[in-house]
Design a protein that fits this description.
By secondary structure, the chain is mainly α. 58% of the residues lie in helices and 4% in strands. The strands form two sheets. The chain has a five-stranded mixed sheet with strand order 4-3-5-7-6. Helix 7 (145-152) packs across helix 8 and helix 13 (263-292) packs antiparallel against helix 14 (303-318).
């Protein structure tokens, strides 16, 4: 058995070294996201991921698949499979302060698996003549900071990237090698749909590619029957569960982020942040476009990753981008998952170019030189450019990120908010209602009944129109997930005992508004003056 496994693994001595370096770097990244609370080392994920962690913990503790611990269930997460995986981890006898560490270690495993999958994909389908160099694509994937960052911060990004790579591998095996990978492809696509509903983009692109290239020809259609039954049945079963349990056709986050504002505003904002992304990673993307487009007719394998990258980038524009586009990070979560396929195509172009030069040199008795002298500088340049490390705005902060000389994004804020929510329990009863803006960290590290000011976990707010009148003349105010709120609903109807955070966080009018609703300042928060749950 072990001999067969060794035969299947790519024979490249550099790959284990690369993986070891990625594991060591990832371990240090994880350590740098931790902090000490009351003398104990505490691990914490990005706030969005901590929302899912709260659902997972509450479910395991018997409160149901809920975030607020009061009222009806609301589907405030976009990745059911990831949330259920977190719930399984919560079954282990691990204290809350270490639960996030398990998710981060799992994500690091997915990142490593994706590097191996990218390496194998290039070896299998993107070699050219005597050249089957796969290390450049594997290296670029391993050192692509935005993908590593979002995955190790607890988002499902690493698993998404792995599923994309595996889907491309299976689809190309079906079309180019006539291998029976139909069921495997459908399993990967099913996992994708259960992970994120918007990975229907991956399913449509992969199945469309297979169909257009003879995968559904007579005699081959039957191979898809078992897989398609799973691909249709499993997401449909979850949709039935969603309707029965949450009472909605789509996740609450869909209504929060994709309704209540004109499509034109969203597209304009999405296009603006995509232009910002091109200003950082434009050179590698331009190289791929210039090199791949002329080859699409002759090289079938390039068509699928090229179409998939275009579809994922278009989706990022359609959604209006991400909430964290204006930070120093070189790519948002939607853009980052497309980049491994960009690196695969870059690897393919290197192999094609080197083989073309080899043939020219043989025909014309030209100068021959080792491929390393071309591959190494090109790979280094692509790594620098794609990460925004070379002659780009905020490059000094990006160097600090990739070298981890500074703590990863938002770590200090998470540490502060963890300490503040734990301190709140010193004078507020556990069954108090607490309104918050950060919906993940405060909810996970407390037992309060929570109220979500920005509507990730509030059906009423999610279905509202934008609260600040966003239009085509003010797209700078369109901050995905942060454009809907209702003070009368949150403070008047929901009647919180404590307002842990206000929105906007500060500014003119906040004290007057809080006093209007009967709140007084106390120890850095606002408490309801007549609340019996505040000691």
């Amino acid at each position: 058995m072990f001999a067969r496994i060794r035969q299947r693994l790519p024979a490249d001595p550099g790959l284990p070294i690369l993986l070891a370096l990625l594991v060591a770097w990832g371990a240090w990244f994880i350590a740098r996201t931790s902090y000490t609370i009351d003398g104990q080392r505490t691990f914490c994920l990005f706030d969005d991921a901590m929302i899912s962690m709260t659902y997972a913990r509450n479910w395991v503790e018997g409160h149901g698949l809920v975030w607020a611990r009061h009222g009806g269930p609301v589907e405030g997460f976009t990745h059911p499979l990831w949330t259920f995986g977190m719930a399984l981890l919560h079954l282990l006898p691990v204290p809350a302060r270490l639960q996030s560490l398990q998710v981060q270690v799992l994500s690091l495993g997915f990142l490593c698996a994706n590097v191996v999958a990218v390496h194998h994909l290039v070896k299998r389908h993107f070699s050219a003549g005597a050249f089957a160099l796969a290390m450049p694509a594997a290296i670029l994937t391993a050192v692509y900071y935005p993908l590593d960052h979002w995955a190790l911060q607890g988002m499902e990004t690493g698993l998404v990237a792995l599923l994309i790579t595996l889907a491309v591998r299976c689809a190309l095996d079906i079309v180019l090698r006539d291998e029976r990978r139909e069921t495997a492809l459908c399993v990967v696509l099913t996992l994708g749909l259960l992970l994120r509903l918007d990975l229907a983009i991956l399913a449509a692109t992969a199945l469309g590619f297979v169909a257009l290239h003879g995968g559904l020809a007579p005699g081959r259609r039957g191979r898809f029957v078992p897989g398609l039954a799973l691909l249709i049945g499993a997401p449909l079963a979850y949709e039935v569960f969603r309707l029965a349990y949450f009472g909605e056709w789509l996740p609450n986050t869909y209504y929060l982020k994709l309704t209540g504002v004109d499509l034109g505003v969203r597209l304009l904002r999405g296009a603006t942040v995509f232009v910002d992304f091109l200003a950082i990673a434009g050179a590698p993307l331009a190289a791929v476009a210039i090199g791949v487009i002329p080859l699409l007719r002759s090289r079938v394998a390039l068509r699928l990753p090229f179409a998939l990258v275009l579809a994922l980038f278009a989706y990022s524009v359609y959604t209006g981008g991400d909430a964290w586009d204006k930070t120093h990070l070189a790519a948002n979560r939607f853009q980052a998952i497309a980049m491994p396929m960009v690196f695969v195509m870059l690897g393919a172009l290197m192999n094609i170019g080197l083989d073309a030069y080899r043939r020219w040199a043989e025909d014309h008795q030209g100068l021959r030189f080792p491929a390393f002298y071309v591959v190494a500088p090109v790979t280094l340049a692509c790594a620098l450019l794609s990460n925004g490390l070379w002659a780009a705005d905020r490059s000094s902060r990006r160097w600090a990120d990739i070298l981890i000389t500074e703590r990863p994004f938002n770590t200090e804020k998470r540490a502060r908010i963890t300490g503040e929510i734990l301190a709140l329990s010193e004078f507020v009863a556990p069954d108090a209602k607490v309104a918050t803006v950060w919906a993940g960290v405060p909810a996970y590290f407390s037992e309060f009944r929570m109220i979500d000011t920005l509507g990730y976990n509030d059906r009423h707010i999610a279905h509202m129109e934008a609260a600040n009148g966003v239009d085509l003349d003010s797209t700078s105010y369109f901050w995905p997930g942060h454009i809907k709120w209702d003070y009368e609903w949150t403070y008047g109807v929901m009647q919180p005992d404590v307002v842990f955070q206000t929105w906007p966080p500060s500014g003119k009018g906040v004290p007057e508004r809080m006093q209007e609703y009967g709140f007084v300042p106390r120890r850095g928060v606002w408490v309801r003056a007549d609340s019996a749950r505040v000691r």
